[in-house]
Amino acid sequence: MLFPKKVKYRKWQTMRRNPKRVGAATRGVTVAFGSFGLKAMADARIRSNQIEAARKVLSRSVGKAGRLWIRIFPDMPYTKKPAEVKLGKGKGDLEGYVAPVLPGRILFEVDGIAEKEAREALRKAGTKLPLKTRVVARE
Questions:
Q1: Which residues contact 42 (CB under 8 A, 6 or more apart)?
Q2: Could you report the per-residue pLDDT of 80-139, keeping only the tens digit for each?
């Protein structure tokens, strides 16, 4: 699974967002490396194990002939307190890392395989993620 080698701060603040004002992504919104990409249609926090599950599906479909790019990286830590623990006593322990994603962001890209295979592989990978996605082609 993906996680950063080193972080400056072990625990971050939550970074809450105003639900009435959800903006679209401005970076990473075009298919830059491959021919087809998987685009996020909603905002979410994608955990590293979800990225890994989608990567496994894609790498199986792409095989040795094609090429795969992962365009997001989970660098934001999240914490969790154990079950049945009373409130207080500080912030919970580090649970894992997430990649915050805004609508319009390209998550994965593939190249080197037929269009039908690429679209099916990206559709399957999208089912492993906690947000709605769309398969897009290079302009």
A1: 103, 131, 132
A2: 999 999 999 999 999 999 999 999 999 999 999 999 999 999 999 999 999 999 999 998
Residues spanned by the domain of 62: 36-79+92-137
Q: Is the dihedral of CA 112, 117, 119, 123 positive or negative?
A: negative
What are the angstrom distances between the C-alpha of 134 and each of 25, 37, 62, 81, 103? 15, 8, 18, 35, 11
The verdict on residue 12 lying in a domain is no
Q: Which of 71, 97, 79 is nearest to 2 (CA)?
A: 97
Tokens of 12: 């971050």
11 occurs within a structural domain = no
- Looking at the structure of the chain, the number of domains it has is 1
By CB neighbour count within 10 A (0-12 exposed, 13-18 middle, 19+ buried), where does 45 fall? Answer: middle
Helix (H, G, I), strand (E, B) or coil at 62: helix
CATH number at residue 121: 3.90.1170.10
